[in-house]
Amino acid sequence: MKKYKDLRLQLNEGENTEGGALGGYPAQSVQSAQSDFGIHRIEDNQQVQRIQAFLNAFTGREYLEPRAALSLMRVKINLAGLDFEFNGKTPLNVGQTQYLKLSRFGGTFGTTPEHDLTKDGFKTTDGIEDTLNGDHLAIALGIQEAPSGLYKMSADVVRYSGDNPEQGQKTMGAITPPLDTHGFIKQRQN
Predict the structure, then answer these.
(1) 141 DSSP assignment
(2) Residues 6+ away with beta carbon under 8 Å from 32
(3) DSSP code of residue 87
(4) DSSP-assigned letters across all residues of 20-46
(5) Which of 23, 71, 135, 159 keeps 20 to 30 A from 129, CA to CA?
(6) CA distance 104 to 180
């Protein structure tokens, strides 16, 4: 009979998609079950970089309707256990940077032994501050109309303290404004 220790060395799991995840042939060796850390673990900088890589790929094209693109981006971010407030009434500030505060698994609601429920009521958090030592995450979103009539977008994950994400720091490299002086989105320099 095989033991789990022996089986773990042989176990490989992968995604069965037509042409592989990147559109080519599937990789010869896929990630093993013991090294797949999980993109929902945002306390690990490498996982946040993966989320940033997704945002870079997603915003690397132009969109006819930015509201529909943001809805799709929200659906994809939900697959990583993250969410941001966005609905039909959320204003889109074309030409300006706006910040979409992230929550993990819908945030937390309840109480802890050291929390006084009678004085403070229920404790509500974004589910991120508990793992990032009180810090929060947001998406710095820039939307600009392109000469083609479509919309260009940029999105960067920003880590911030307190209530103001505008004073946050980009999680990868230095913070740069998403739009240059001509109103076009700057190329990311990491």
Answers:
(1) E
(2) 8, 11, 12, 13
(3) -
(4) -TTSSSPPSSPPBTTT---TT-TTSHH
(5) 71
(6) 31
Could you tell me the sign of the dihedral formed by the alpha carbons of 93, 174, 155, 47, in that order? Answer: negative
In whole angstroms, what is the distance from residue 139 CA to residue 54 CA?
12
Tokens 């706006």 sit on residue: 98
Listed in sequence order, the residues at least 6 apart from 20 whose beta carbon sits closer than 8 Å to its beta carbon are 26, 27
Neighbouring CB atoms inside 10 A of 29's CB total 7
Please state, in angstroms and rounded to a whole number, the distance separating the CA atoms of residues 130 and 183.
37
What pLDDT, on the 0 to 100 scale, is given for residue 188? 42
Number of H helices, E strands in the chain: 4, 8
Task: Divide the 190 residues of the chain into consecutive groups of 10 and give the mean pLDDT of each group.
Answer: 75 52 47 58 83 91 93 92 89 91 88 81 85 89 93 92 74 41 43
Of 57, 58, 89, 53, nearest in space to 72 by CA = 58
Enumerate the domain spans of the chain.
Answer: 37-170
